[in-house]
Write a structure and sequence with these properties.
By secondary structure, the chain is mostly helical. The chain has one domain. The protein has 8 helices and 2 strands. The chain has a two-stranded antiparallel sheet. α2 runs antiparallel to α8.
Length: 237
């Protein structure tokens, strides 16, 4: 851990956060839903059919309960990360970890609230003008990102770790989609919130708690070929 990350470390952390699938995939999805009336059509269908949760009220309740559960899981992984056997260094390590991870999720939620105020999009249920982006989705993907990063530090079998990561991100998706079925958000709100939550959380976590400056560095190599050349990009994780 470092409280004064170098510029290289900050740049590498931003790069890792940007190319993370849970950042760019939702971002692309949000852009796709913004085309024509696709966003509105899917929102209307989800609110009327409620294919996953059966009712708007159930979707709303499940989203809140699941988000609270994710918070508990993230807290458990923070405690489970190795931090030494003696009490003083253990508490110091946990305190620093909580500070950084708290700042990560706080920054993601702060960005979401700022965008809500700036964009002023009306929710599908017409309740207010704070639809874009989804705060629940931001929180869900921020918690998923923190849990995933913490799991990397816990001694586990590779298959178990991968499975747990998949489950926690699936929970984040469920939280976001539930907000769509409850007519609290449009699909693009959910996806934009997911991208914001994952990007800022991974970026801040890795800048202060992640690998050193050499991780995430990019090396470009040009290989000449007939009529031109091929550029290879190597990213160190």
């Amino acid at each position: 851990m470092t409280l004064r990350p170098s510029l290289d470390r900050i740049g590498n952390s931003a790069l890792r956060a940007a190319i993370h699938p849970a950042t760019w995939l939702p971002a692309v999805g949000a852009a796709v839903f913004a085309i024509d009336d696709f966003d509105q059509e899917v929102s209307d269908w989800a609110g009327e059919e409620t294919p996953v949760f059966g009712s708007q009220n159930t979707a709303r309740d499940v989203s809140n309960i699941l988000l609270g559960t994710m918070g508990g899981i993230t807290a458990a992984t923070i405690v489970a990360t190795p931090s030494g056997k003696e009490a003083k260094p253990w508490f110091e390590s946990k305190g620093k970890g909580l500070l950084v991870e708290g700042c990560a999720i706080g920054s993601a939620l702060g960005m979401t609230e700022a965008l809500k105020a700036a964009v002023g999009r009306t929710r599908p249920d017409q309740s207010d003008d704070k639809s874009f982006p989804s705060g629940h989705s931001t929180a869900g993907f921020s918690l998923a990102a923190l849990t995933s990063r913490n799991l990397d530090s816990i001694p586990l079998r590779r298959g178990v770790r991968t499975g747990l990561k998949a489950v926690t991100y699936a929970m984040g998706v469920t939280v976001g989609w539930a907000r769509v079925e409850s007519l609290s958000h449009f699909p693009s709100d959910f996806l934009a919130g997911a991208a914001i939550g994952n990007f800022l959380t991974v970026f801040i976590h890795d800048a202060f708690l992640g690998p050193g400056d050499e991780a995430g560095s990019v090396e470009l190599k040009v290989v000449p070929s007939a009529g031109g050349g091929i550029v290879f990009a190597y990213l160190a994780f």
